[in-house]
């Protein structure tokens, strides 16, 4: 019976392979590498589907995506340059051995790809109410109706629609990501093809300096990347379009990424430090989202702060809202308040029902608030302080 050699030894014989290309097959590492590649896709897929199904990318900070994409660009090119000699070895070894040896490029490249898709979806599903704003120009006071000055012409033109600063910022940051990627690829290509090949696979000094710079930049950007998103999520106290299932998979998966990248030929600490840093920061963001998810459930609101239709009776949004407002009509001899109510808007005077609703809500709040607070023990006071900080 004819037995075929293992796939990773099909081409060519080991004696014909350059010394630098004598890779050792590791079945366990190959399994972990494949599992991690599948896990990256599975972990990011809920985030992609979450944005598409909700039809909105609200909740993402554009600075978070800018820093994340530029960090991913630097990390990808760092690993690609360090493993360039291993890439050239693929013409001397079999497919599976090439696939196994280039695990660092494959993992980092896939991570870069799925994260960049989030930026694309962020632009495609940018909330319309944050993309455009409608405004109406005001005519110059004292000018005749047929005045042809610019303010009067704009006032007669009616409402105008213009892009918001948020949308302009998102477009500008997307261009920055693209230019950064092309510039780094251009510099790396020049350095790799102008540097002599080393028989032991060690990159030239200028390539090593460039890859170290990229690795440190990638780590620094990854650290700064999470700051806007952490602050944004903390201030809004809403999960938004962030996917908790995706972060539950990605946070522990960062440890596996560090292990696989560090074990591949040609890589060094500048290649995996960024993923160790990002994993710790993402775990912090995940913890915050879990806390806000519990808060949303208690308040009866969704991930974007909208009231849920099946919110419980004791929820925050229904506690002070009267179920019905009676039509007092002509029984009111005088308006309840002659002065406008703060926050009711200019239409309050034209809608007595709204005035009554606001009045009843204020009275209900006053009646339900005791004049003197109950005495609390020190432990209860401390617990209340934590709840106040978390707004639970």
Name its key features:
two-stranded antiparallel ribbon; LAAT-1; single chain; 392 residues; mainly alpha; transmembrane helix; transmembrane
What is the secondary structure topology, with strand pairs?
Elements: H1 27-54, H2 62-82, H3 84-88, H4 95-101, H5 103-124, H6 128-131, E1 132-135, H7 150-156, E2 160-163, H8 165-194, H9 205-236, H10 244-263, H11 269-299, H12 352-367, H13 378-390
Antiparallel strand pairs: 1-2
Protein name: PQ loop repeat protein
Main location: membrane
GO cellular component, one term: membrane
Task: Outline the structure in words.
By secondary structure, the chain is mainly alpha-helical. It has helices at residues 27-54, 62-82, 84-88, 95-101, 103-124, 128-131, 150-156, 165-194, 205-236, 244-263, 269-299, 352-367, 378-390; strands at 132-135, 160-163. The protein is built from 13 helices and two strands; from the N terminus they run H-H-H-H-H-H-E-H-E-H-H-H-H-H-H. The protein has a domain at 40-124 and 165-299.
Could you give a short description of this structure?
The protein has 392 residues and is an all-alpha fold. The protein is built from 13 helices and two strands.
SS element count, helices: 13
Level of helix content? 55-70%
The termini sit apart by: 71 Å
Oligomer: single chain
Share of β-strand residues: under 5%
Determine the structural class based on helices, strands and strand pairing: mainly alpha
- Gyration radius over CA: 30 Å
Main sheet makeup:
2 strands, antiparallel
Widest beta sheet: strand line-up: 1-2
The tally of beta strands, per DSSP, is 2
> What order do the SSEs take from the amino end to the carboxyl end, as H and E?
HHHHHHEHEHHHHHH
Mean pLDDT: 74
Low-confidence stretches: 1-15, 317-392
The coarse silhouette is globular
């Amino acid at each position: 019976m004819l037995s075929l050699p293992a796939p990773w030894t099909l081409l060519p014989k080991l004696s014909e392979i350059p010394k630098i290309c004598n890779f050792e097959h590791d079945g366990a590492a190959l399994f972990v590498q494949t599992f991690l590649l599948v896990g990256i896709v599975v972990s990011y897929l809920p985030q992609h589907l979450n944005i598409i199904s909700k039809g909105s990318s609200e909740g993402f900070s554009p600075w978070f995506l800018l820093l994340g994409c530029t960090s991913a660009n630097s990390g990808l090119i760092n690993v690609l340059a360090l493993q360039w000699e291993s890439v050239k070895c693929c013409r001397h070894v079999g497919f599976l051995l090439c696939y196994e040896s280039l695990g660092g490029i494959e993992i980092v490249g896939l991570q870069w790809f799925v994260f960049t898709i989030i930026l694309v979806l962020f632009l495609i599903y940018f909330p319309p109410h944050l993309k455009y704003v409608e405004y109406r120009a005001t005519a110059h006071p004292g000018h005749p109706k047929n005045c042809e000055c610019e303010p009067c012409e704009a006032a007669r033109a009616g409402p105008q629609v213009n892009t918001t600063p948020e949308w302009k910022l998102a477009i500008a940051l997307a261009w920055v990501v693209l230019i950064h990627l092309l510039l780094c690829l251009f510099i790396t290509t020049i350095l790799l093809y102008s540097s002599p090949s080393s028989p032991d696979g060690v990159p030239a000094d200028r390539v090593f300096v460039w890859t170290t710079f990229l690795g440190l930049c990638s780590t620094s950007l990854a650290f700064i990347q999470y700051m806007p998103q952490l602050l944004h999520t903390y201030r809004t106290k809403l999960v938004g379009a962030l996917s908790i299932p995706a972060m539950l998979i990605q946070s522990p998966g960062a440890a596996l990424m560090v292990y696989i990248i560090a074990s591949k030929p040609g890589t060094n600490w500048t290649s995996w430090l960024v993923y160790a840093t990002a994993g710790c920061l993402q775990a912090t963001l995940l913890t915050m989202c879990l806390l806000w998810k519990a808060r949303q459930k208690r308040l009866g609101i969704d991930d974007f702060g909208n009231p849920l239709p099946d919110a419980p009776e004791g929820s925050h949004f229904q506690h002070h809202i009267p179920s019905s407002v009676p039509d007092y009509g002509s029984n009111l001899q005088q308006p309840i308040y002659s002065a406008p109510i703060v926050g009711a808007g200019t239409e309050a005077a034209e809608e007595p029902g709204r005035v009554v609703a606001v009045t009843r809500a204020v009275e209900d709040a006053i009646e339900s608030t005791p004049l003197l607070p109950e005495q609390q023990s020190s432990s209860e006071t401390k617990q209340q302080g934590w709840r106040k900080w978390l707004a639970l």
